[in-house]
# Entry
Amino acid sequence: MKEYVCTVCAYVYNPEVGDPDGGIAPGTPFEDIPDSWTCPVCGATKEMFEEN
# Structure
C-alpha cells in the first residue's frame, strides 16, 4: 500500500498503521479514508496529501 504525505506539515500517512486516533483502522488504504478526514498533525484536508 502506498504512503501519502501532507504537503502542509510533511506528516506521512502509513496505511499499515492507519490513524487510530482519527478513527482510521490499520490496513486502511488512503483511497478508502473518508473525504472528511483531516491531517492529525495540522488539520489539512485529505486533498492536501500527495503520494509519497
